[in-house]
Amino acid sequence: MPLRQITRLASVNNAQCPRRISDPPWNLVRENLELLHSSHKSRKQLWSLLCESGEELDLQTFVGLLYGREDHDVIAAAWLELVNKPTMFRIRQDRVSARPLNDLRRLQKERRRRKASERLEKAWMHLLTAPSTRTESSTNPVLLERLDKLREIASGQAGPESLAPELCKSLMRAGIAVERNELRQFLHRCGCWGVHQLPSLEGSSWSQGFGEDILLECRTILEQCDSEHDSDKSRLDMTSQRCVTIDDADTYEIDDAIGLETRADGCQRIWIHIADPGRLVLVGSLLDLEAQRRASSLYLTTGSLPMFPEELSSGPFSLRAGRRSAAWSTWVELDSEGDIADFGILRTWVCPTYRLSYDDADELIELAPPEDKDLAELDQLLAQRRQWRQQHGGLLMELPEGRLRQHDGSLEVVITEPGASRRLVAEAMILAGAIAARFGYQEGLALPYRGQPKAELPTTSELQCLPRGAVRFAAIRRCLSRGVTGPVPMMHFSLGLSAYAQVTSPIRRYSDLMAQRQIAARLEGEPELDPHELQQQIDTINLSLREGIAITREDQRHWQQVWFADRSQSSWSGIFLRWLRSQDQLGLVRIESLAMDLPAICPTTSQPGFNLRIHVRQANPLLDQLQLTATSI
Predict the structure, then answer these.
(1) 592: left (phi over 0), alpha (psi -120 to 50) or beta
(2) Coil, helix or strand at residue 601
């Protein structure tokens, strides 16, 4: 070292120079030196003396006054403290002076800040290594902010690169990888992440509920829903016509009703009534913007997250039995082949005669009582329409569908069977969409048309080699393209339609409300969106729609993991449908008793239609893991 950087503290007249300072005659050991402290009283007195006099002392004199002795060990201890620690004194060019009062106050603040930081880091490391004993993290805003950041990464709202480097280092020291699954495990251990918490739902529009300003607007609508609105002047009163709603027993958003009119000339006219929430929801209102932000209602295992507040969606928006309700009504007359012969779209008042469950409707269709035979006749008309679509390329792939639902705290598989009434309602809704699209095409009106590109399906001979039902349908579905939405008419391949627009669920699908508004603008001579403006709205809601689909899929996947984890020792019979990744032995199998198609590790010899036995290899909801294996029977 340069000589100017070396300070002589003490010397001895020994001929033998020690090799280390810990050797005699010095015997200087850092641990011993750190134990040598002057009293606070003597430090304060000496500081006051030097402040008053402004005098500077050499190190030896300073040590003599402070410690009362000038031995080399206290000189070394004092020098270490002056050089390494901010104290009441400072040393410059081997001279010691008192620090000004302002300096001492600043050093005191820094010392308090440093100690607080050290306590914080100690609490943070304690939380990382012993998360079940979280104490300070419950109240400390800094630690809560760090946990919130980890939650963002665990839920996928932010990437690992957004984490500050010092936090990454602390996680590494605690043996926690900056990876979503591992962060979720840590957050779960410290009580910040529920085992059934969906990462994709975190921070989404649906997770935040409806704000107080929206609920206030909702209450205003409820108060004014029975008063007359501008759109009511042109409504046709059809409250005397018989019509029914058909839904699942637990459905509370009732979008549609159907009825049958037999005219004087014997012609039968199908009526499809759709809820009209646009009567009460103004364009650009807080409620409208929130619905646009959500784009759709979500139906999860534990319940639904509606697009509109439940007071409205199950109240004045819905077509409730025995209540006069605003509707968009489509009438249609079919020709002998099932094609559309004539149609009309108008705003109406309707009063559904009664509400039916699918089971009730199936019974009425089957029995066709003379006093209530409308449903049976509707079933025949719409079956003819379904056959027409099939002749024009429409694909009919009906299978039981199983979904997990939580009911009274227990998780159960609910299987939806494709009955007559479900086919009737589905065909009526497709018919209403076809009529809306035809109206839009004839009028040159921009609507959110739904299309699907033409697909190259397996040949008839190839399909005939496959077992009927799920196996054959799986071969067809793998060839189909994803649906698209745009402002101009387009073919919908699997429906067998040249044009189609979804309009039948405006309470739970924002694009349907957009379509209703466009039709209303054209019929009433009001300004409407041009194709470019409509495409911008479509692009906006498509982002939310994709987010909603991801949440719904993650929800079912999570509860499948929970369900199979509770049955890890069970097995089920299944059918091999097709390969997903043959190189990884990953195939798609159908478990008939659950009515579910699931991926599984399958024998390399598996062929479509092979019977398999399905077992649980791994199921961990917290780690988002489910692995099924299939063995040959």
Answers:
(1) alpha
(2) strand
Q: Which residues pair with 122 in a beta bridge?
A: none
Beta strands in 379-505 (DSSP E): 401-407, 410-416, 449-451, 484-486
Q: Residue 179, SS3?
A: coil
Contact predicate 506/274, CB 8 Å: yes
Cα gap 312→310, rounded to integer Å: 5
Q: Which residue has the tokens 């062929």?
A: 607
Given a contact cutoff of 8 angstroms between Cβ atoms, the answer to whether 416 and 324 are in contact is: no
The answer to whether 630 and 589 are in contact (CB under 8 A) is yes
- The answer to whether 202 touches 151, Cβ cutoff 8 Å, is yes
Which tens digit of pLDDT belongs to each residue from 123-148? Answer: 888 888 886 655 555 578 888 888 88
How many C-beta neighbours within 10 Å does residue 133 have? 10
Nearest by Cα to 514 from 603, 449, 455: 449
Q: How far apart are CA 20 and CA 300, in angstroms?
A: 74
Stretches where the chain sits below pLDDT 50 are none
pLDDT digits (tens, 9 = 90+) for 492-519: 999 999 999 999 999 999 999 999 999 9
Nearest-5° angle of CA 44, CA 49, CA 51?
90
Token output for 190? 């410290």
Would you say the C-alpha torsion 445, 388, 344, 350 has a positive or negative sign?
negative
> pTM to 2 decimals?
0.81
